[in-house]
Design brief:
This protein is α/β, with parallel strands linked by helices. The protein is 43% helix and 19% strand. It has 13 helices and 14 strands. The strands form 3 sheets. A 6-stranded parallel sheet has the order 2-1-3-4-5-13, sandwiched between helices. The chain has a 6-stranded mixed sheet with strand order 7-6-8-9-12-14, with helices on both faces. Helix 1 packs across helix 2, helix 5 runs parallel beside helix 12 and helix 8 crosses helix 9. The longest helix is centred in the N-terminal third of the chain and has 21 residues.
Length: 355
């Protein structure tokens, strides 16, 4: 049985709209009120799970670990673009994970853990109370020390979008290095050599790998020292837009192409370019890197390096169940290759240079 927002609102003496904002991680809710709503929701869900008969083989947990909200913002934007009901719990990915788990005889419990408003010790105790047998963590925003409380449970743990190899944890990863090499190679083949990487100010695992790969690839192709070609702009669209305007005002000094670290960077940068009336791709070329489908930015079909996130996370849950049923001491690091989806945002300079 699903807990309704109206029931929570009535119990806590707040509006249903406030409950909806809190549950969907939207702004406009007092932090204390948000924490109270989320704590109440978790308590009620735990009560329902404890009352319901477990599947024949028990329960597993899929956990979204939210430190700064960047990844969740990306997912929610994708949901709005595709008219998917709000709340990651309703996403096709989560439904596929739950269906697969049921088919294997396990009940899947899905949780979003907000580091700034929730207590990790409470979550660990909840895992014990629910007799969770294994956890798959969407761990893109986690730091290394964040994994240690979960290891106290002494159950199989598999992570997606982060690497905890030294901790003995299996990982399912996007091949960021291969993706950046593919993207830079594509730009070079189109005649671009002065390439700048536009980054967020958040240092999550995938972003750090992409930045390191950009430096290595630029050096390998003898395109100069690229350390001053990584511009950290911000972590929200408006902040990125403001920072990019300042960069444009100072001049971009012959730069012909930008690599965009995420969809948030893409949106903020495009807003600044449009305001300056720069034409894409004639004045500046853009290459995006994100897990999400390309945004149709006012007529610009963004050329994009894409990863297979749904397939990768689903494979992580499949491996978790295999690990529960047949413990294997060998630690797995599974990398998924990217693919290039060509749009109309990269100018083919080589076509004119060599004709």
């Amino acid at each position: 049985m699903r807990i309704k927002a109206k029931e929570i609102a009535s119990e806590l003496g707040v509006s249903a709209a406030t409950v909806s904002l809190a549950l969907n991680d939207r702004p406009g809710v007092n932090p204390e009120t948000r924490k109270r709503i989320l704590s109440y929701m978790h308590q009620k869900e735990q009560e329902l799970w404890l009352e319901s008969p477990p599947s024949s083989k028990g329960r597993i947990m899929v956990l979204s670990y939210i430190k700064n909200g960047t990844i969740m913002e990306h997912m929610e934007r994708l949901q709005m673009e595709n008219r998917i009901p709000q709340g990651t719990k309703n996403s096709p990915l989560i439904r596929k994970m739950a269906a697969f788990s049921r088919g294997k005889g396990y009940e899947m419990v899905y949780q979003k853990f907000h580091e700034d408003t929730q207590d990790v010790d409470y979550l660990i105790q909840e895992c014990r109370d629910l007799a969770i047998q294994g956890i798959y963590i969407m761990a893109a925003e986690m730091h290394h020390s964040d994994i240690y409380p979960f290891q106290q449970l002494k159950i199989p743990i598999v992570t997606g979008d982060n690497l905890f190899y030294e901790e003995g944890i299996d990982s399912y990863l996007i091949d960021n290095r291969e993706g950046i090499a593919r993207g830079v190679g594509y730009l070079v083949d189109k005649g671009h050599s002065h390439i700048v990487y536009l980054a967020e100010t958040i240092d999550i695992f995938n972003f750090q790998e992409r930045r390191e790969a950009f430096l290595s690839e630029m050096a390998r192709r003898e395109l100069g020292d690229a350390r001053n070609r990584i511009w950290k702009l911000g972590s929200q669209i408006e902040g990125i837009y403001t920072s990019m305007k300042q960069r444009l005002n100072a001049g971009i000094r012959g730069t012909t192409a930008f690599v965009l670290e995420s969809s948030i960077v893409s949106l903020g940068v495009y807003k600044a370019l449009k305001e300056r009336q720069l034409q894409i791709p004639r004045d500046i070329s853009l290459l995006g890197f994100d897990a999400l489908p390309p945004y149709n930015i006012l007529g610009t079909d963004l050329t994009l390096i894409k990863g297979t996130h749904t397939k990768r996370h689903l494979a992580g849950v499949q491996h978790l169940i295999r690990h529960i049923e047949d413990e294997n001491e060998e630690i797995l690091k599974i990398y998924y290759r990217t693919r290039l989806q060509e749009g109309n945002s990269v100018f083919d300079k080589a076509r004119y240079i060599y004709q």
